Amino acid sequence: MLTLPPFLLLLLSIPIILFLTPQLLLPKTLTAITTTSDLDELDDLNLFQRATTLSSPDLTSPVSTHKIAFLFLTNSNLTFSPLWDLFFSSHAPLLSVYVHADPSSPFLLPPSPSFRLRLIPSKPTARAHPSLISAARRLLAFALLDDPRNAFFAILSQHCIPLRPFPSLHRALFSPSPSQSFIEILPPKPSLWPRYIARGATAMLPEIPFSRFRVGSQFFALTRRHASLVVRDRVLWPKFRLPCLPSSKHSCYPEEHYFPTLLSMMDPKGCTGYTLTRVNWTFIVDGHPHLYSPEEISPELVRKLRKSDSGHEFMFARKFSPGCLKPLMEIAKSVILKED
Question: GO molecular function: any one (predicted)?
Fold first, then answer.
């Protein structure tokens, strides 16, 4: 029988160790890597770990120089980039812009002379699917790592527009200090039950009892502390990552539940409970809010969209059709970007 020298046995064992190590180091919340989605999950996990361990905030700079990170979730080109360019103009030192563009759709970087736009490595997304949560967390993680002065993180879509000039937004977020996140967290209602059991009657237990389950807008502005909390989460995410049952396809909107539930459970007093993005749910078509047409655009509409029933002012609005760009640009300087 052939006996191998000890050093040769060690040499032969190295490939085996390298193959097994990732499996042994997987956190308990992840399954073994057997599918593409699991590989994506591990890739994201590595990014999130770096974001929470290496992204120290810049505490030496005054609040007046802290930046707002604008995080665009899109599956098409940024139709309203000319309007955003006007909004960002002359304020580049106080903002960062990041885009997560679905790789299955062609995306062209818009001309952006007023700001630096960073297109982050993205992965496919789908409506009513946890991939939208992953994309938002990915944007937050990249923005945390990219600039220690990013103090607020605003999630937006390609259908969003600004309603007020940049200085108004900066004052609203940082006055007196960036202490609260602007995220909609609605009170629990019995009507949430179908959404709660969309993955199965007991799928959320024991971590999320029905009494702690929340709903809100998928568009929000988080403080750096809350952005870090979101990408650090390993407890609630596995629950929302579960696929919905085929019979629950009309009740499956994980992106509207994960963020409000997580922050409501972890730090309810650190959240305003409302979003800064106005959406018109008066006319719902296939689960989508009202889509504004060019004929509806007017100074009166912009002023109406700014106001809310709860006393605060909206800073953004959605959802606008591509044809709205021209009439919006016509009133951009005189209405949208004009200080009151």
Answer: glycosyltransferase activity
